Amino acid sequence: MKNKNKKTSNKSTIAKVLQYIKRYWILLLLSIILAAITVALTLYIPVLVGKAVDLIVGMGEVDLPGVISILLKIGIVAAVAAILQWLMNILNNRMTYHVVRDIRNEAFNKIQVLPLKYIDKQPHGEIVSRIIADVDQFAEGLLMGFAQLFTGVVTIFGTFLFMLSINWKITIVVVLLTPLSLLVARFIANRTYNMFKRQSEIRAEQTAFIDEMISNLKVVKAFNHEDEAQVEFDHINEELGKCSLKAIFYSSLTNPSTRFINSVVYTGVALTGALTAVGGGITVGGLTSFLSYANQYTKPFNEISSVITELQNALACATRIFELIEEEAQIPDAYNAIVLNDVKGQVNIENVDFSYSPETQLIENLNLFVQPGQKVAIVGPTGSGKTTIINLLMRFYDVNKGSIKVENIHIHDITRKSLRTSYGMVLQDTWLRTGTIRENIIIGKPDATEEEIIEAAKAAHAHSFIKRLPKGYDTIITEDGGNLSQGEKQLLCITRVMLCLPPMLILDEATSSIDTRSELKIQEAFARLMKSKTSFIVAHRLSTIRQADVILVLKDGSIIEQGRHNELLERDGFYATLYNSQFSK
After folding, report:
1. Residues 2-325, CATH architecture
2. Where are the alpha helices (DSSP H) in 442-564?
């Protein structure tokens, strides 16, 4: 059953690969034509060699001018064959890397539309490994397949015809013995596929672990976790070593096994041919040509068996790539989805249930009505569902039950782009990309002018530190912000929102990494920005939300208290306990 599933999977993968290759059928056709011509020229050389041998057999019977003439022909034919083979390799390379480019583009495009639940559950290094390492392995196998498979198949048919024209009896001996090498190659290949697949999986696990360690190196060092990390890496590395050794060992048996069988075939042909030559059934030159053809006939079987082994690895890697490409994408926008315009900021959450996993219910029967321009603060202990509400508002996740409406329109009936453009979002975790400071600021508004950028930076109190950088707004930073402090990185993210001036705001601990003095100034800037704008503020420091129009107190995914700051303190409930715990002596 397992072998049947593997064969079905292989056929499916090959069919998918052929769909990509089909786009470049002209290159494929030219490559096959060049392969046929190259093989024909290569197979013509033994005919010339046989004629040359016949011209020098016998004492004093050497036709030197004839031999020289044939040698010149051999040189010309070999040179033309080499040039054509070079051109064929160029075409194969071009076709292979076009296919690889298309697959990588499709894989990256799929990442853009995958639901966040997939990205959250998968190790990021695993995804990177599929797009980088697995595609590279697939490219190597595909390139070898193009380079050797075409010429191999044409060589087999060509040599068979030439041998048949010289002596059909010896040809039968060759044809009957040669398939033994294919049987051996298939036997080994069937056992290496799963090993190569497992090798790819462990390589992906290793990449994921390395990515995790590099991303969190400060934490590793801070908690002296280096030794434990090294032990875990050694364990993964050892597993990869064992798996790779098995895969390479079994695959490496293919070549010597097939070569041994080919040598047996060659020996049988030589003996049969010698006996036939003694009986006058074939000339010495003809036997020389035939032996050359017999060797060339068996050689492609040997090469094809090597190609099959490489293709096993390539198919194992391709299967993992296509698994990513075929992952279920997020639910697309409805064909008649509405583009939000002139957003006032009315948000209505009705009877919403949501959980990240079916086993654990997080939010139950959540109801909230937000008037345009209201400042809504969301507080509660860790794990109460504060950030989850933000994820639902932005439609990073879809609700399990109930509805969320913006301007009385269900968010499922609104295009994701216009919905998310309506929000300005600053999170506790900063996100910056490799590029200049300016490029990081204008992500939400690419057509912003220099004056608008500087004005937004001044409003966010980021202009002063940006001007102190070596090249100001043209300073290049890496994806983790380079040498910028956490506070400076957060100021850049705030500047990004200040530039967009969206109709609604989401602030998830937006000033958590900023000093108190700067925070007060930014709070003033936010106050101006939030004026007449609907705002959702997630906060742990309750001193920052005293002026909110309504405070939602969450616990275990439900709103247990709701009201203004003073009202909630007077009730002396859960909010009062949280607030007093932060200010008790």
Report:
1. Up-down Bundle (1.20)
2. 450-459, 463-468, 486-500, 516-530
Domain layout of the chain by residue ranges: 2-325, 435-501
Phi, psi of 333 (to 5 degrees): -60, 145
Strands 363-370 and 409-410: unpaired
Q: Which of 68-77, 117-126, 279-288 has the lowest mean pLDDT?
A: 279-288
pLDDT at 2: 46
Say if CB 37 and CB 84 are below 8 A apart: yes
Number of other CB atoms surrounding residue 31 within 10 Å: 23
Give CA–CA dist 154/300, Å, rounded: 9
The DSSP result for 327-362, as a single string, is: SPPPPPPPTTPBPP-S----EEEEEEEE-SBTTB--
What is the rounded CA–CA span in Å between residue 178 and residue 293?
13
DSSP H or E segment with residue 321: helix 284-325
Cβ pair 43, 162 in contact under 8 A: yes
pLDDT at 83: 93
User: CA torsion sign, 456 to 462 to 463 to 469?
Assistant: negative
- Whether the pLDDT of residue 1 is over 50: the answer is no
Alpha carbons 578 and 384: distance in angstroms, whole number: 13
Largest separation between any pair of C-alpha atoms in the chain: 125
**pLDDT tens-digit map of 226-276:** 888 888 888 888 888 888 888 778 777 776 777 777 777 777 777 777 777
Beta partners for residue 370, in sequence order = 347
pLDDT in tens, 299-332: 776 666 666 667 777 777 888 888 888 888 888 8
CA distances from 32 to 25, 91, 140, 147 (A): 10, 10, 19, 10
Residue with tokens 């202990």: 381
> Mean pLDDT over residues 62-71, rounded?
80
Q: pLDDT-based confidence at 80, cuts 50/70/90?
A: very high
Assign 163 to helix, strand or coil. Answer: helix
CB contact at 8 A, 352 and 401:
yes
Strand order in the sheet with 375-379: 423-426, 504-508, 534-538, 375-379, 550-555, 558-563
CB 491 within 8 A of CB 514: yes
Cα–Cα distance between 295 and 67 in angstroms, integer? 23
Q: H or E stretch including 558?
A: strand 558-563
Residue pair 278/156 in contact by the 8 Å Cβ criterion: no
- The mean pLDDT value of the chain amounts to 80
Query: Band of the pLDDT at 289, cuts 50, 70, 90?
Result: confident
How far is residue 579's CA from residue 543's CA, in Å, rounded to a whole number? Answer: 8
